[in-house]
RNA sequence: GGAGAGGUGGCAGAGUGGUCGAAUGCACCGCACUCGAAAUGCGGCGUGCCCGCGAGGGUACCGUGGGUUCGAAUCCCACCCUCUCCGCCA
């Protein structure tokens, strides 16, 4: 959500930032509505002021038994009240229009975000690890996975496309990955373990920016709630409408949850395999901090996500997203892309974003800086640390052997009850 | 799901139709006293929005949304949430 005052003060800068996102200028339209809205407000409030004043006088007149004056004043208020509903409606309508307009505008990119149209313009920051040289042709996990317990057919029978069941050693490996990630983020990296609701109300999704624009990407329950598409929604909204005690900042939270996405816009993409599912698990990282700390917090969070890939010895690259590829709420995003041998390319496995005060404004999450009487909006950040399903795919593909078995990465062996290899059946 | 009680400022807690944005206490801030602190005294102390260069003025907000009334924290309706008891249940 954008601050109408900053748009008022510098409409040109606002439009310039929108242009970086590939959007047409909006400040003129916004400010026209804003001006109209304020004019109506002023008029309405003058009416209310007179009504309040007259009502007090009526009280006094009646106490003095001066019915003539009281009746005259009552008549005046009656006239006033005839006009007010129309003004009230107009006030509500312009206010709603302004909110609707502002709520649909994405966050503005940070200055150091590269200009670009789509993912082709993203900038690679670093590469870690060297893709393994295979002495056989590496297979797609969708092909050798079923023999190891990836049950695509079972999932599809139950629930349709993009649902998968995991069985036996595959389920165990998935659990091992999730536990390892959670242990690392709560231990080494100091994020607070959190269990959150998976069903949330409209307000929560508005707060993080999924609503009102992206309802079609979500699943909705019959009682009007929504399944979370990411634990970012639940974790970040924990501070919604709160004034967070300054000494508790930064808040660093993590949660392992299933995530539900309708994938409405991705028909035909990644239809094979375990890459793009309606339901998948993810260890999410969220940080809530003071504005001056969010840049450092962003780097810290990204490092926390990278640590998992490094511990698993999975080659990856870190990419700085360009203006055209960033999500709605982000002002700066790093993607981590893991090497997938079967695709001979890097695929997204984590996205780490600094949202600045964009989400905090939408959900009214504030703090009171030391020595200040004024509350200020917090900064919010979120990142995957990591997407468990995609990490499973990366482990399978990078650790596959010619015989269809998969070696378990060293750090996971304790989580696998000592099992060192997944054997096809 | 049924019955009952209740939702007021950072917290506790008054307030059942007019001068209530709201007593009082605690917490907090400033000042005085003190070498300093405590205690005490005095003063201050909610948020959003609109108007104004400013001083300041206005408006809205007592769970949420409607309604009655010249006037609503207070009356009416609906909904949400919390607590207690009963039922059911992982």
Automatic annotation (TrEMBL):
Pathway: Aminoacyl-tRNA biosynthesis; selenocysteinyl-tRNA(Sec) biosynthesis; L-seryl-tRNA(Sec) from L-serine and tRNA(Sec): step 1/1. GO terms for molecular function: serine-tRNA ligase activity. Signal peptide: none annotated. CDD domains: SerRS_core (cd00770). PROSITE patterns: AA_TRNA_LIGASE_II. It catalyses: tRNA(Sec) + L-serine + ATP = L-seryl-tRNA(Sec) + AMP + diphosphate + H(+); tRNA(Ser) + L-serine + ATP = L-seryl-tRNA(Ser) + AMP + diphosphate + H(+). L-serine binds at residues 230-232, 284, 384. ATP binds at residues 261-263, 348-351. It comes from the Bacteria. InterPro entries: aa-tRNA-synt_IIb, aa-tRNA-synth_II, aa-tRNA-synth_II/BPL/LPL, Ser-tRNA-ligase_type_1, Ser-tRNA-synth_1_N, SerRS_1_N_sf, SerRS_core, tRNA-bd_arm. The keyword Transferase does not apply. Its EC number is 6.1.1.11. SUPFAM superfamilies: Class II aaRS and biotin synthetases (SSF55681), tRNA-binding arm (SSF46589). It is found in: Cytoplasm. The keyword Thylakoid does not apply. Keywords: Aminoacyl-tRNA synthetase, ATP-binding, Cytoplasm, Ligase, Nucleotide-binding, Protein biosynthesis. Coiled coil: none annotated. Residues 172-409 form the Aminoacyl-transfer RNA synthetases class-II family profile domain. Belongs to the class-II aminoacyl-tRNA synthetase family. Type-1 seryl-tRNA synthetase subfamily. Homodimer. The tRNA molecule binds across the dimer. Consists of two distinct domains, a catalytic core and a N-terminal extension that is involved in tRNA binding. Catalyzes the attachment of serine to tRNA(Ser). Is also able to aminoacylate tRNA(Sec) with serine, to form the misacylated tRNA L-seryl-tRNA(Sec), which will be further converted into selenocysteinyl-tRNA(Sec). This is Serine--tRNA ligase. The gene is serS.
